[in-house]
Specification:
- This is DUF4440 domain-containing protein.
- It is built from 3 helices and 7 strands, in the order βααββαββββ.
- By secondary structure, the chain is of the alpha+beta class.
């Protein structure tokens, strides 16, 4: 049994991972990613700001790039409306104060007027700041 309660994320599912086989550090990164995904589904911009570094750049499936605040504005006003998010087959790698989580996102969303389920493979990068993992650009 892990010390991280993933059941608190009502709009986020994690599949394809053996949580009992993950280290505490790996679980802490996965938990942070799930926390971020839950905040996306709730349009909880305050929590999203706590998790994402100020200089973060987002790249959409279309290739469109946005600053953190541009992206958050689209979530806040509903242009990006996430209903549920699946974290499928997550693989976490922790090296000191940096971490990478690679997974397939399964997004049930309305993205700029296109409603559907979108699947995207990708990686998110984190850096430890104090006791918390903060999402950062891949540099």
């Amino acid at each position: 049994m892990t010390e991280y309660d993933f059941s608190v994320f009502g709009n986020v599912t994690i599949t394809g991972a053996d949580l009992n086989a993950m280290s505490a550090e790996e679980l802490s990164v996965l938990h942070r990613q799930a926390q971020y995904c839950q905040a996306m589904t709730e349009a909880d911009i305050d929590t999203m700001r706590e998790i994402v570094s100020a200089d973060m750049t987002f790249t959409h499936m279309s290739g469109r790039r946005q600053s953190r605040e541009e992206y958050f504005a689209d979530v806040a006003d509903g242009r990006l409306n996430y209903f549920t998010i699946g974290i499928e087959d997550p693989r976490v790698r922790v090296a000191g104060d940096t971490a990478t989580i690679t997974f397939t996102s399964v997004l049930n969303a309305n993205a700029y007027g296109a409603r559907g389920t979108f699947r995207m493979a990708g990686s998110h990068h984190y850096r430890r700041r104090g006791d918390a993992w903060i999402a950062v650009n891949a540099n």
